[in-house]
Amino acid sequence: MIGYYEFLRTATPYVRANRDRLFIVKLGGEMLAQPQNARRILEQVALLMNLGINIVLVHGGAPQIASLCERLDLPVEMHNGRRVTSSQTLEAVSMALCGQMQSQICAELTALGVRAVGISGADAGLVIASRRPLQDDGAGGTVDFGEVGDIQEVDTRLIRTLCADGCLPVLAPLASDGTGKLLNINADTVAARIAVASEAAKLIFLMKPAGILEDPTDPTSLIAELDIAGLDELGSRGILSAGMLPKAAATRSALEGGVERVHFVSGLGEDALLREVFTNEGSGTMVMRHA
């Protein structure tokens, strides 16, 4: 019992400081692949809500999309951590994100006493995007990302209305182009833009590693704190790659847009999200604009 008391005593100032503030939590699809692990994560999210912190949960779904594409015999193509999306793949993305995944997340949160509402960026003009033009592939050629969008506008009125009514928006990273077409958007990018537009206090990435690692092959090389300059330095050394690249870009965008802190936290660690938010030591990596 002493341990619980000490945790509560340490957590109290953080609870008081963050009450009524908004956190954007981006949950990678790999964290939802195992039901028991997904339940543990969502229990922590529910506790944050019960302590008076407003949450918007942005979810990815790479493994689930890949699995559905495999069943539909559709190729899966990635470039620098971002999905290349054909029109057929876009249908699979929409089915995976807005269908089974989102419904399951909302059902789990409902069972935990949270009024979760599944939405996408296409709802109520939340995210308006334009189809991405051809991109330099870094090898003298170009890459066509297909039905992938670059965000042009974000309107957070729907999110504000839901949060004001005590709901937790569960957001799938799809957008409208304003003419009735859907576009796929990287979930990290959506989370960052929503964080800036809604003036969120924190953007939290939940992923497999404990945080940002000095050596990606060494789980003990966790970097507890970073600033943008340090993040850029890691990128220049090639330490950030694949799925970490859009996360790094999203982190810079969020911090430069006014978000106070960005956190990288393991979704596999026991109570890692709670320890990151409510203890001095934290559990992952905290990134600030300036050291």
CATH topology: Carbamate kinase
Q: How many domains, in number, for the residues?
A: 1
Strand order of the largest sheet: 5-10-2-1-13-15-16-14
The major sheet is characterized as:
8 strands, mixed
Mean residue pLDDT:
90
Shape, principal axes of CA atoms: globular
What structural class should be given to the helix and strand makeup? Answer: alpha/beta
CATH homologous group name: Acetylglutamate kinase-like
- N-C termini distance: 37 Å
The top level CATH class name: Alpha Beta
Gyration radius, in Å = 18 Å
Q: Using DSSP, what is the number of strands?
A: 16
Poorly predicted regions are none
Q: Helix content range of the residues, please?
A: 25-40%
CATH architecture: 3-Layer(aba) Sandwich
Beta-strand residue percentage: 15-25%
What are the secondary-structure elements, in order, as H or E? HEHEHEEHEEEEEHEEEHEEHHEHE
Number of helices in the DSSP assignment: 9
Structural account:
By secondary structure, the protein is α/β, with parallel strands linked by helices. It has a single domain (21-288), classed as Carbamate kinase (3-Layer(aba) Sandwich), CATH 3.40.1160. Helix content is 40%, strand content 24%. The chain has nine helices and 16 strands. It has an eight-stranded mixed sheet with strand order 5-10-2-1-13-15-16-14, sandwiched between helices. A two-stranded antiparallel ribbon has the order 3-4. It has a two-stranded antiparallel ribbon with strand order 6-9. Strand 1, helix 2 and strand 2 (54-59) form a beta-alpha-beta unit. It is globular. 43% of the residues are buried.
